[in-house]
Amino acid sequence: MDSGGGRRGPARRWQLVRAGSDAVPPSTRRFMRRARQRRMRAALPWAVAGVALALSGLVAWLLLGTGLFGVREVRVVGADLVTPVQVRGAAAVPDGVPLARVDLAAVAARIGKLPPVERVAVRRDWPDALVVQVVERTPVAVVPRGDRFLVVDRAGVVFRDEPSRPAGLPLARVARPGASDPETRAALQVLAALTPPLREALVEVTVEGLARITVRLSGDRTIVWGDATRGDDKAQVATSLLGRKADTIDVSAPDVVTFR
After folding, report:
1. Where are the alpha helices (DSSP H) in the chain?
2. CATH number, residue 97
3. 217-241: per-residue pLDDT in tens?
């Protein structure tokens, strides 16, 4: 008997029971399996993209943000007139800076300011080196300047200053040697046009003006060249007259040659 005067029935106890696989119809199981496969296929590209992004970030951090692949060596190839120490100094690449962050064009531009360097190429050599390929200027003539000698290349660039005359280079006398000087370019044109016999006998080329160029040969002989035009014709005519007994050969007008 309870105090309320009513009778309570027995208490119900609930229990969860996992249904066996046989309780789920085959069609439902197939539907659920296909649904799971569709969800996995839909998520797979995102998962792959996430992994790729994470790997890319890791690689970028290793290359750009750490010294793991930092510069440990600047290797110089082709340097003779300049020393590797000079090239490395001009490159100005701090030791340990991430190799991927090095501005190759800027490094090449700095090295290219060295007077003996005609052109330069810089490349990365993983994991920790820069390779600098130097092409130096080729000397073609020397210009006397006081008691010293300036060495110029085929473009007229002055890239060396020597206390004594370098052997094997022809002498060019011009007032203002340099790549932008018309008289320097005229002297180089004349030198380039000389035949082997003229070059063998050459003492010097003198430019007193663009139309007053003379070529002095051994034996105190002089060729009046005039200007730098028609160099090949003038050289051929002068070569053919080397056997003549004449101190001066005027080939300034190669079609009408005079000598005395």
Report:
1. 26-64, 84-91, 104-111, 182-193, 196-201, 231-240
2. 3.10.20.310
3. 999 999 999 999 999 999 999 999 9
